[in-house]
Amino acid sequence: MPTSVQTVVVTPDENNMRVDRFLEHRFPGLSFSHIQRIVRKGELRINGKRADSKDRLEEGQSVRIPPLKLDAPKVAGELTEGAQKTLQQLKDMTIYEDADVMVLNKPAGLAVQGGSGTTRHVDMMLEVMRDAKGQKPRLVHRLDKETSGCLLIAKTRFAATKLTGSFRERSARKIYWALVAGVPKPKQGRISTYLAKEESEDDTIMVVAKHGDDGASHAVTYYAVVETSAQKLAWVSLKPVTGRTHQLRAHMAHIGHAIIGDPKYFNKENWELPGGLQKRLHLLARRIIIPHPRGGVIDATAPLPPHMQQSWNLLALEGDRFDPIDNAPEE
Question: Any idea which architecture 78-188+221-331 has in CATH?
Fold first, then answer.
């Protein structure tokens, strides 16, 4: 469905919207590559001037749009059998949902976003929820592929802006549960280091770095031991204040209590996994508490994933114990 040249005016709702998002919003069915092409060629003009896809629009500006080739947007009723199956899987994962927000209980092993060799991920699954305007739910934070638990999704642009702001201002509280080797002493504490990315031919890990090192970012985590098993293992509750890549995994390894089943950070010599425990990452994004975009609070909790539930059962850990991390500071 090609269109002709048109000039449109930026509405109040579109104020401060990026050019590429504006085009996606106005023209459902317009591909990302097509947007990049018309911007690169200078065919898109804002008040007569060339624009970049990252430029922000202001209410009242006039945007000249060249002829576009649009794919017909899909209507909900036209979902393929595969898409309907994906939609059902998302529904099965949902632990909270309203008009603006959904919280998924992401299973371990499912990536949040695409990467090399990743064919199926949450961001791709959300394509089946595109509405008639071409809007699809957006990720507002991330979880590692092998970490299960609470993943917050914004269903509207308004919610995405508000929630992203809450993460940036650190008004979101995230609580994680992990099973670690040994028992941390003291039983409650604060880990504060700088972390930097270290890349090798076949892996990328986060390492403890010094302030001022290239790419080093400050990272702070509070931990509390909830219960122990024969002094060999501990169930710890973790509250990250910052949100660095692999922060909790790198921090627990740094204090000598790596998370069980962590393929990147668990390197204890001659350490044997107790019988019956699966060699999978024992890390759960247990709970997320964040201001709701329209007032009030979202407070969602995810259950232990099957492999962690099995370990809790084998070690006779009581999953409903009081979680002492609730009282940890926020900075």
Answer: 2-Layer Sandwich (3.30)
Whole-angstrom Cα distance, residue 74 to residue 130?
A: 8
Task: From 179, 121, 126, 128, select the one nearest 145 (Cα to Cα).
Answer: 121
Tracing tokens 């430029």 back to the chain, one arrives at: 55
320 given a catalytic annotation = no
Contacts of 130 (CB under 8 A, 6+ apart): 28, 73, 74, 136
Instruction: Write the CA distances from 20 to 34, 57, 61, 146, 163, integer angstroms.
Output: 10, 10, 15, 32, 20
Residue 236: predicted pLDDT: 98
Query: How many percent of the chain have pLDDT more than 70?
Result: 95
User: Does CATH place domain 6-65 in 3.10.290.10?
Assistant: yes
Cβ–Cβ under 8 Å, residues 68 and 74: no
User: Taking the chain, what is the end-to-end CA distance rounded to the nearest angstrom?
Assistant: 53
308 confidence band (pLDDT: 50, 70, 90): very high
Whether the link from the prior residue into 186 is cis, omega within 30° of 0, is yes
Pairing between β-strand 217-229 and β-strand 188-199 as defined by DSSP bridges:
antiparallel
Q: Is the pLDDT of residue 83 over 80?
A: yes
Residue 67 CB coordination number (10 Å): 11
Asked if pLDDT for residue 12 goes beyond 90, the answer is no
Cα gap 43→67, rounded to integer Å: 9
pTM: 0.77
Does the pLDDT of residue 168 top 70, yes or no? yes
Stretch(es) of the chain classified as CATH 3.30.2350.10 = 78-188+221-331
Rounded Cα–Cα distance for residues 217 and 244 (Å): 8
Give me the percent of the chain exceeding a pLDDT of 90: 64
Q: Say which residue the tokens 């949040």 belong to.
A: 112
Q: Which of these is catalytic: 20, 100, 144, 262? A: 144
Segments of the chain assigned to CATH 3.10.290.10: 6-65
The mean pLDDT of 206-218, rounded to a whole number, is: 93
pLDDT at 2: 58
